[in-house]
Amino acid sequence: MLVLGRRTGENIRIGDDIKVIVLEVRGGQIKLGIEAPLDVQVHREEIYERIQRQNRRAAGTMPTDLREAARLLRQNGRS
Amino acid sequence: MQIRTRTLGAVEATPESFLTLPEGLIGYDDQREFALVASEDHAPFRWLLSFGDPDVTFPLLPAHLVSDEYHPALAASDARAIGAVASDALEIYVIAAVDAEGRLTANMRAPIVLNPQSRLARQVVLSDGRWTVDHLVAHGNAASQEAPAQRTRQAA
User: Fold this and answer.
1) N or C: fewer beta carbons within 10 Å in chain A?
2) Where are the domains of chain A?
3) B69: domain CATH number?
4) Which residues, 6+ apart, have CB-to-CB distance to B84 below 8 Å?
């Protein structure tokens, strides 16, 4: 892993078009600004992992399980 | 055109159902080309099926069926990524899942936003922490369906 020391207001460049800016350092917290192209999605790691896990779970949904859920939704008038 | 899937077998999909997720889904960034098909057996769910991988089959719900109060704020970069301008009516879906206890949940934190004009879609991550990745939509068994009624009786 590359380790760089930076102060408030200093930047890091990743490739030609990603820039990470150190906006504020206070206590144990760092506020970062990130400039990246539109096709690069930037997320907090923990939310990214949660979504990834949930996507994996959803991708394997069995049609038989879904049929029961669909029946419940139609029963509740949600269709 | 037929899409091969592991759990649903061969599924017929017409070109109107095709869509592209230019960045894939989170955790599935190698899959870009999909079809969104309705299924009589599973209505109101639809299946988001990958052309490239028979194991990638996502059940989706139109978001408004899950909650009337769901109005996700779309970032300008998200709208641009699917070629949307303000006047375009976007379709919002959430990915559903059934957990081990048979509960139906929906990922309200990361909906799939489709621009029906361009047929481009993106899984958007909302910054609004009120919505979770496993929002409870319905319980899967009779016992849990009765629970609210029992609570009412105790209160009375």
Assistant:
1) N
2) 11-70
3) 2.30.290.10
4) B90, B115, B117, B118
